């Protein structure tokens, strides 16, 4: 619930370890709300969210889950190093351990040449890397990122995705939201969302095979149209049943059109 409105409904999915899972859907469909639920800053009013065997937001997960929010979360008037030292200290790191972590994350996000630059003087892509570096200080096993590439040009987005890929190759699980469908090509699995519901939870290949579409954008549109058609049929059936008393006695026919979910256990 956000602002008294139910935002997410009937969602079931899992995120396999070591995978890059993309959460894709149009603005306002509930991507941020979903990620907030996984991180534990959004309390679901029904159902439950388990993260690495514990309830989302559990104290034991704090150092195991990294969260890069959509809004800037670093200080523009500090340098890259000053920001990282500040956040490392806030996490309780001290002395050489703090310095080691700071140097490690600066390298991981390829910001060594900008380490002494004020964040306010960095480009959009570099700015995003600083937020990412902060989230990496704890070496999280699960990294949740809310539209980390929004507003960046294709070249910079590509470079950032190379960093994400490297992290995944080293064993980090990444849950990344985006409303840019071409980023789907870089994910191992996709969660396609529309108006608070999941249209699909599958690998890109399975999604394309199931929908017989050439790319994810086309597949998404296909699923949106199928879902809209199913909703219209359900609405029509409800209207017919209200108008015709004899139909009220008959059980509702199941709808053949369903959202597409993988059946490989990774729902
Ligand atoms: N603080 C809030 N109070 C009330 N409603 C909210 C709040 N934040 C979001 N919402 C509503 O919840 C719904 C889902 O929002 P959410 O931010 O999860 O979508 P999103 O897919 O991440 O959008 P975007 O891609 O634009 O970031 C929207 O209809 C939005 O208006």
Automatic annotation (TrEMBL):
InterPro entries in UniProt: AAA+_ATPase, ABC_transporter-like_ATP-bd, P-loop_NTPase
Annotated SUPFAM superfamilies: P-loop containing nucleoside triphosphate hydrolases
Disordered: annotated span: 245-267
MF terms in GO: ATP binding
Statement: the UniProt record of this protein carries the keyword ATP-binding: yes
Gene3D superfamilies listed in its UniProt record: P-loop containing nucleotide triphosphate hydrolases
Domain of life per record: Bacteria
Protein name, entry field: ABC transporter ATP-binding protein
ABC transporter domain segment(s): 1-220
CDD domains for this protein: ABC_DR_subfamily_A
UniProtKB keywords: ATP-binding, Nucleotide-binding
